[in-house]
Amino acid sequence: MPEITTKPRVQVKPQVERPKLYKVILINDDFTPREFVVTVLKGEFKLSEDQAHRVMITAHRRGVCVVAVFTRDVAETKATRATDAGKAKGYPLMFTTEPEE
């Protein structure tokens, strides 16, 4: 009689990495009106009036301010749409993205 060897099946769970996150950064300029910056922050990033005002003032004082953190595609889309909103009104408003460390 042949010997039967059985091995238990090992279930391998795939390791799923969390997507890398990217910061959306508001860059200060001396030409875009503060009210317009607050309007863009509220519209594109869904910030409250108070949060948008704080972000705008921080960027004004320090030169830059992190607005929010998203996955890469969302961060780039929001930064582009917010920058384009400024261009449409003739302002040099600029948002950029960079990887979160």
Q: Could you please describe the fold and organization of this structure?
A:
With 101 residues, the protein is of the alpha+beta class. Helix content is 43%, strand content 21%. The chain has helices at residues 34-45, 49-62, 72-88; strands spanning 21-27, 64-71, 94-99. It has a 3-stranded antiparallel sheet. The longest helix is centred in the last third of the chain and has 17 residues, at 72-88. The model has no long low-confidence stretch (mean pLDDT 93).
Task: Please identify the structural class as seen in this structure.
Answer: alpha+beta
User: What's the total number of strands?
Assistant: 3
How many helices?
3
Major sheet characteristics: 3 strands, antiparallel
Overall 3D shape: rod-shaped
Give the SSE string: EHHEHE
N/C terminus separation: 63 Å
Oligomer: single chain
The amount of helix comes to 40-55%
Low-confidence stretches: none
Give the radius of gyration. 23 Å
Q: What does the average pLDDT come to?
A: 93
Which range does the strand content fall in? 15-25%
Could you give the order of strands across the largest sheet?
2-1-3
Task: Label this structure with key terms.
three-stranded antiparallel β-sheet, 21% strand, ATP-dependent Clp protease adapter protein ClpS, hydrolase, 101 residues, 3 helices
